[in-house]
Structures are given as C-alpha cells and as structure tokens.
Amino acid sequence: MNYQTAYRHAGFTLIELLVVIVVMGIALGMVVLQLMPDRLASLREESARLSLLLENAGMEARASGRAIAWMGERGSYRFFHKNDYGDWVPIDDDAMFRSRTLPEGVNINEVTVESQPLKPGEYVIFSANTYAVPFRIRLANEAGSAAVTGRSTGDVSYALEGGQTVAVGGT
To answer: Considering the entire predicted model, what is its pTM?
Structure first.
C-alpha cells in the first residue's frame, strides 16, 4: 500500500469541513427563525379582528334598523347602541360587540372619520338608514402599524404598514 494513498483517505479535506459547517449554519438559522416570535402577529390578528367586528357592526345596524357606534381609546375599544332615551350606552350583553382590551403593546394611535380626526368622546357611527361613513383606524405596536379602513360601501379592510391590503368581507 502506498503511503500517499493511505494518507489521502484518512480524513476530511478543508473544503468538505467548510461545506458541512455552512449547511449546519443554514439549518440552525432556519430553526431559529421558526422559533422566534413574530412581532407583527398580534398587530395582524387585532387588525383582522377589528376589521371583522366593524364590518359586522355595519351589517347588524342595517339588518336590525338600529344604529351602532364604536369608540376606541389607546388600549381598548367598545361598541354602543342607543337606549330608549336616545343616549349611547355600551353593549355589554353581546359576545360579539362586547368591550375589548388590546394585547399589551398594541395601541390605537389615530381614528379619522371622513379624513377628519375623531375627537375624544366621539364615535364612529354605523347608521341603519344611510350609507356608511368612511373611516380609518391606525393600530400600532413596537414592530409596526396597521390601518383598518372602512369605505362608504360598508366594506372594511386592513393593511399592515407597507403590506398588502386584506379585505375581510365577502365582497
């Protein structure tokens, strides 16, 4: 047996070791990315939930003949309807339109109706008799922001900042 031939087959070359290290690095990177929490997930979920609730509020108002209102504060929002005296009162006895607290870190930063900022204590109103009023609600957390947009057709959609708009209704 030749000494050079035995020596050549005794171990791995430097290139083979580098290839193995690169493949292991790529695999480890993919595992780490899968295990890391998505910082936009809570913002995406809350934007989708709010879009669906607002679109349902508009449909409920038209179907029932009773107006529904929405008001958001920094970390929460709630729905209202009018009582027998014409005053807006919170809806507390409905599982869908109950008051909700946003997850920690997600906030309502801006609400506009017909491109005008909503003042504290004012409502987004879903009328039973007229066309829907266009509105925009901006949610944000440390990772980004999202806009929930209602159109005069009653359709509501949401879009993450710099992302694709997602229509939530069946139209």
So the answer is: 0.73
Contacts 24+ apart (CB under 8 A), 24-28: none
Residue 104 backbone dihedrals phi, psi, to 5 degrees: -55, 130
pLDDT in tens, 95-106: 999 999 999 889
Residue 73 half-sphere exposure toward CB, CA atoms < 13 A: 7
66 vs 58: CA distance, rounded Å:
10
Please check whether residue 159 is in contact with residue 146, taking contact to mean a CB–CB distance below 8 angstroms.
yes
Burial of 127: CB neighbours in 10 Å, binned 0-12, 13-18, 19+: middle
Q: What is the pLDDT of residue 6?
A: 52
The strand ranges marked E within the chain are: 68-73, 76-82, 88-90, 100-101, 107-113, 116-117, 124-126, 135-141, 144-150, 156-160, 165-167
Q: In this structure, are residues 128 and 66 in contact, taking their beta carbons and an 8 Å threshold?
A: yes
CB atoms near residue 58 (< 10 Å): 25
Let me know: does 158 contact 38? Beta carbons within 8 Å.
no
